[in-house]
Specification:
The protein has 104 residues and is α+β, with helices and mostly antiparallel strands. Helices cover 29% and strands 24% of the residues.
């Protein structure tokens, strides 16, 4: 598992195993000082679901989790990529929704 820390978030490569969502949440804990508590809570739920879906429905290849944090409004956009086995896959061209204070 390699982690790259970016100025506005991070990118980590996770093994496609059942503990991947737990590992992803530990990485999100590093954003606690950057994001409002409710945004971090929502981000944890979304990332957990995305990573679990990648493990359950993916090909078993490593999962790339990238988190982009915008300091202006302290919102975050998660991105999870991995080879899926079904017709519905998250691809690089999929629209991403930002999570932040505006959601309140």
């Amino acid at each position: 598992m390699d982690t790259v820390h970016l100025p506005s978030g991070f990118e980590v490569v996770l093994d496609s195993v059942t503990s991947a969502s737990e590992t992803s949440r530990r990485h999100l804990d590093g954003l606690a000082e950057l994001l409002p508590a409710l945004t971090l809570r929502d981000l944890r739920m979304v990332v957990t679901e995305l990573v679990n879906n990648s493990v359950m429905h993916g090909s078993g290849d490593p999962i790339v989790l990238a988190i982009d944090v915008t300091p202006v409004d302290w919102s975050a956009a998660p991105s999870v990529t991995g080879a899926g086995s079904g017709e519905d896959q998250i691809t690089a061209g999929s629209p991403r929704r930002r999570l932040g204070p505006a959601d309140r």
